[in-house]
Amino acid sequence: MERHNTNISRRSRRLRQGHRGSGPVVYWMSRDQRIDDNWALLWAQQEAITRQKSLLIVFCLVTDYPGATPAHFQFMLTGINDLPKRLAPLNIGWTMLQGPPEKSLPAFLHQIDAHAFVCDFDPLRIKQQWKQKLISNLNLPFYEVDAHNIIPAWTISEKKEYAAYTIRPKIKRLLADFLTDFPPLVRHPINLTTTLAEITAQDLATPAKLQASQKMIMEPGEREATRAAKQFIDQRLVHYGEYSNNPCRQGQSGLSPYLHFGQLSAQRLAIMVSQAPLGSEEKEHFLEELIVRRELSDNFCLYEPAYDSVEGFPQWAQKTLDEHRGDTREYLYTLSDFEAGNTHEALWNACQLDLVQNGKLHGFLRMYWSKKILEWTPDPETALAFAITLNDRYSLDGRDPNGYTGIAWSIGGVHDRAWKERPVFGKIRYMNQAGCRRKFDVEAYITSVKENTSK
Ligand code: FAD
Ligand code: FO1
User: Which ligand is nearest to the CA of 269?
Assistant: First the structure.
């Protein structure tokens, strides 16, 4: 029986049945790397208490995670390092495994005679593949809990949505039911009996390739994430509507790396924003991005297996891009040219430098940056591959459904409509510097990036 009206049971789904062992309920933490406000952990605890079992969290470190660099691992592992010391007083076990989860988890779960297995939700291909293999290789009850979205992705919609305007009413209908507060995680009443080494990231023989040499661009971890969220709400949310599209202003929240690594719960952030003592207009604008746009990205990656290839673009976009394959491109660059910020255009080069130096690029410039890659490559396939490679390699928040969807929107018209036809782009929405100049001071942006680089 739920103690609060949290809809916790409706946030989970069973992936397979199986034999329940006498050991702990195990939560495999992956996308949602936090203790607070984590529906998967709360669900696992509820299951463990009902079944009178102990509770254990396991994280599988995958050192060759696609697209990830030492800077990303450093941010992730520093955040993860704080978790075991917070779990000890809660009587919840912690351990880490190294290697592909479908290989490392089955033997481990067998060894501890796990009672049930719970994972968090992720629509990306690699996660779906890991889970499919685990479904085949395990013989114990296996559940999935969407701890990332406010409304579970499979509940909002059972199909790929056409655009924001088709998913928005579905979200609106369900939001009040799911945007509830979180019940507390309690000190777990049943002790772990299995003797387990409490492995932390430092104990793993992490290869030297994971040691980042640069200074971290922002402080990782749950505590820092909450502090940054509070600071944004107290000081900058009021200007979000006015400044969020201006790269010269610090108008956006800057919270995407915390959300990407699950160090901050989007639901907690939505609750904090809803309760802020501000007018509804500022809040609505931000919540539209945080809820509708973000959950739309998960919907796209969940229901479009080709979310990172041209086959995932809508039919009209594939057709129009095909019709313009033969168009002359005025400039053509290689991946190395783009990567080094070596194009003819100062604004694009500044965007690239900003991305490389700071691990992030302003949301408005991300659109411009990727559309120019379409304009300056021989075909849409190359453009898409280059944009994904660079975004995943350099963005701290990359390797995320929001990234694949944002790039597919910019280059392939996903969730957008047809616009006036023009060379190369066909009917894909075009952007140019004149549009940028109407939004912000382009020269000031370029100068600020250069100044930051020379420091
Ligand atoms: P804020 O404006 O403060 O928004 C708060 C949160 O709302 C964001 O952190 C994010 O979770 C969500 N959000 C905001 N805008 C969008 C959007 N358009 N789509 C989906 N969710 C949104 N986002 C990523 O998280 N990772 C990426 O790799 C990524 N790559 C992108 C690439 C391109 C080409 C484009 C056009 C967009 C991309 N986005 C990506 C979406 C968006 O630009 C970023 O989420 C946002 O700029 C992150 O900064 P912020 O946290 O300060 O955003
Ligand atoms: N998830 C894991 O379960 N294990 C990892 O070792 C791991 C590394 C990693 C590195 C960079 C990065 O951006 C993500 C990483 N993730 C890892 C996955 C992440 O938690 C997210 O689930 C997805 O990237 C976004 O959905």
Answer: 1
